[in-house]
Amino acid sequence: MSGTSERPVGVLRTLREDLATARAHDPAARGDLENAVVYSGLHAIWSHRLAHRLWVAGGTGRPVARVLSQFTRFLTGIEIHPGATIGRRFFIDHGMGVVIGETAEIGDDCMLYHGVTLGGVSLKHVKRHPTLGDRVTVGAGAKILGPVEIGDDSSVGANAVVVKSAPANSIVVGIPGVAKPAKSSKEELREAQFYIDPAIYI
Fold first, then answer.
1. What is the pLDDT of residue 1?
2. Is residue 63 reached through a cis peptide bond, with omega within 30 degrees of 0 on the bond before it?
3. Collapsing DSSP states into helix, strand and coil, what is residue 79?
4. pLDDT band at 76 (very low <50, low <70, confident <90, very high)
5. For the sheet containing 111-112, what is the strand order?
6. In DSSP terms, which residues pair with 66 in a beta bridge?
7. Which sign, positive or negative, has the C-alpha torsion 50, 44, 165, 183?
8. Among 104, 101, 48, which residue's Cα sits nearest to residue 71?
9. What pTM value is reported for the model?
10. Among 174, 167, 202, residue whose Cα is nearest residue 188
11. Contact 48, 80 (CB under 8 A)
12. DSSP type of residue 166
């Protein structure tokens, strides 16, 4: 997952990447100025980047980071723990109800829809949240729980509940989530619950 290992990128370049990502993923996106003002997903991501730096710095930065993340939650409806590690060109579409836990790791070029939870299943101070590889898309309402890994270039269907890891190039659908190769036919995938049609959601 390259998103957690690359060198830091300049602030202006990061902003330009984020705005370009919004245009690429949302046909309703118009101009960069409008998107920067009205897209709560962008606001949550930008706030998280600052909160994450404070969190990593430690000391008094951590309580400040938590306050910032909670204020951002109040404004956007999106809760991202400042400890979460997020790669470049991350996009949250609509965003309301998204929750990303402390030890979650998200690669580059990932996209989440509204109502997604990257949650934990343990009360211990360990790696307890999911890891998403690069270019992973998670459909609306999906729950990915525990320290599972979703491989690169995979998609998680709307309303899926994922408690097991999935290899790269998978489509994960159903409750509990079942991983199928992305090359599977639409007819096979429709047999599973909560099929996500890539033409609509991806």
1. 55
2. no
3. strand
4. very high
5. 91-92, 111-112, 137-138, 155-156, 170-173, 178-181
6. none
7. negative
8. 48
9. 0.79
10. 174
11. yes
12. B
